[in-house]
Design a protein that fits this description.
CATH class of chain B: Mainly Alpha
Structural class of chain B: mainly alpha
Number of helices of chain A: 12
Number of strands of chain A: 18
Shape of chain A: globular
Number of helices of chain B: 3
CATH topology of chain B: Non-ribosomal Peptide Synthetase Peptidyl Carrier Protein, Chain A
Largest interface: A-B, 22 and 18 residues
GO cellular component, one term (chain B): cytosol
Distance between the termini of chain B: 8 Å
Strand content of chain B: under 5%
GO molecular function (chain B): acyl binding; acyl carrier activity
Oligomer: heterodimer
CATH class of the largest domain in chain A: Alpha Beta
Radius of gyration of chain A: 24 Å
Shape of chain B: globular
Largest sheet of chain A: 6 strands, mixed
CATH architecture of chain B: Orthogonal Bundle
Organism (chain B): Salibaculum griseiflavum
Order of helices and strands of chain A: EEEEEEEHHHHHHHEHHEEEEEHEHEEEEH
Distance between the termini of chain A: 39 Å
CATH superfamily of chain B: ACP-like
Strand content of chain A: 15-25%
Number of domains of chain B: 1
GO biological process, one term (chain B): lipid A biosynthetic process
Order of helices and strands of chain B: HHH
CATH architecture of the largest domain in chain A: 2-Layer Sandwich
Radius of gyration of chain B: 11 Å
Helix content of chain B: 40-55%
Structural class of chain A: alpha+beta
Pfam family, one (chain B): PP-binding
Number of domains of chain A: 2
């Protein structure tokens, strides 16, 4: 059971997406784990053959508990392990490693979802969990028998929502609130925060987007938030002391920028999944990556890497709302970029006072790692980038 | 004739499944009252674009911001 966040203690295994005999490569999704922050797809961190699934579906397991045994190519199964299922006991595991290496790799002939628990939509999965229903007891009406939300609602006993909300361990929202409280308390107790703010003119950026989007159909339009993420990503790539993790008493700068995008969930709660390798993305790629992240965050279908490999957090209040926010750093990161909603204000341009849209940028930084001068450089870089949006 | 009101509500609740379509007032604002963010609004515009082929420019977003406004907008902009 991997740790999917600084304060995760346990997770519940809800789905296997592989079975014994399957070949897996680093990064493949092998299981789904229910956490306080919703259902997370677990990616494998090494390549090999699934030898045995140890953990049982539905089991609540502490971080560090073994879920499965993966054998690297040529590796013999552990002697003390219980007998593997028939399908993998054939030659590939019984032979010595030397012979294995020359043998052709077994062909994965198993459909991705076969035998790995019932196929269900994310919404159905979340709702079934809320209601305490076992998905395997529900008949699916979707394509190929997939369980969809409506099937879960039909299977729900009576007006079940209030009952589920008050019973047992509390609702998913309560659990998420606890997770946020734990992470933020730890952050405030262990990270000596300091803050720098600057109000910057975003009129050029807004004018640029208005012109860009005017010629584009809805699926290709770009939001101001994507420009903010581009600018913050490029500033973080340059000011390396803002981008990385503080672990085991030392700061480890990251060589790539995976900005965590704070996403408010409807009904309450917040997650900040990482947009992986954002430093290599164009503006359009950034926008589509953000749209995908937000969609999956709301559906409760994020990946383990996205939950753990963020290198800096970007929290934008959107296009309406308060003008500034001073955020709490998400450990083990060392900085958070807080961006208020654009407000129209009198602004000095040249020698004239003109109405302009401005935003207030507030950097929360970790004094164990950086000082005001470096944070000021980040802000200055961000401001310069936003003044030339066509180059983002 | 297409029921634009029902179609709009359907796309709205696809984006925000926690909203009960029966409780949405005709003049409730999707951002101020129903708490859609800018990404949700763009997804709603995309959904309406896909469903009706209507290319709602950004300047027209205020004209689809409530059920009543959107119904009128779609009635006049979607080719029958």
């Amino acid at each position: 059971m991997p740790s999917l966040g600084a304060d995760m203690e346990a997770g519940k295994l809800v789905e296997w997406t592989v079975q014994p005999g399957d070949q897996v490569s680093r990064g493949d999704v092998v299981a789904v784990v229910e956490t306080q922050k919703g259902a997370i797809e677990i990616e494998i961190f090494e390549s090999g053959t699934v030898h045995e699934l140890i953990a049982e579906l539905g089991a609540e397991l502490p971080v560090g508990a073994p879920l499965a045994v993966i054998l690297a190519e040529g590796e013999a199964p552990p002697a003390e392990a219980p007998a593997a299922p028939e399908s993998v006991q054939e030659d590939m595991t019984a032979q010595s490693p030397a012979e294995d290496i020359t043998a052709p790799p077994p062909t994965p002939d198993i459909a991705p979802h076969a035998g790995a628990g019932p196929a269900a939509s994310p919404a159905a999965r979340v709702r079934a969990h809320e209601l305490g229903l076992d998905l395997s007891a529900i008949r699916g009406s979707g394509p190929g028998g997939v369980i969809v939300l409506a099937d879960v609602e039909v299977a729900a006993p009576g007006p079940a929502r209030p009952q589920a909300r008050t019973g047992g361990t509390g609702s998913a929202i309560d659990e998420m609130r606890k997770a946020i409280a734990a992470a933020m308390t730890r952050s405030k107790q262990s990270i000596p925060h300091f803050y720098l703010s600057e109000t910057i003119d975003v009129q050029p950026a807004m004018d640029y987007l208005a012109a860009l989007n005017a010629d584009r159909p809805p699926p290709e339009r770009v939001l101001l938030g994507a420009l903010f993420v581009r600018a913050a990503t490029r500033a973080a790539a340059k000011i390396k002391v803002m981008n990385g993790h503080f672990t085991d008493g030392a700061f480890r700068p990251a060589d790539r920028v995976n900005p965590g995008i704070a996403v408010a969930l409807r009904g309450g709660g917040l997650v900040a999944p990482a947009l992986m390798d954002a430093q290599d993305m164009t503006l359009d790629q950034t926008m589509s990556g953000m749209r995908d992240l937000v969609t999956r965050a709301r559906a409760g279908r994020l990946r383990s890497s996205e939950m753990t490999q963020g290198t800096i957090t970007i929290s934008s209040l959107g296009e309406t709302g308060a003008e500034a926010m001073t955020g709490v750093i998400f450990p083990p990161q060392v900085a958070l970029v807080g961006i208020g909603a654009p407000h129209r204000r009198p602004w000095v341009v040249g020698d004239a006072v003109v109405p302009r849209h401005v935003v207030t940028l507030t950097l929360s930084a970790d004094h164990r790692v950086s000082d005001g001068r470096q944070v000021a450089r980040f802000i200055s870089e961000f401001e310069t980038l936003m003044s030339e949006p066509e180059a983002l | 004739m297409t029921d634009f009101r029902a179609a709009y509500l359907e796309e709205l609740t696809n984006i925000a499944p926690d909203i009960d379509p029966d409780t949405v007032g005709d003049d409730e604002h999707i951002q101020d009252d129903l708490e859609l963010d800018s990404m949700d609004v763009l997804n709603l515009v995309m959904a309406l674009h896909k469903r009706f082929g209507v290319d709602i420019p950004e300047a027209d977003y205020p004209r689809i911001a409530t059920v009543a406004l959107a119904t009128r907008y779609l009635e006049s902009h979607v080719a029958s």
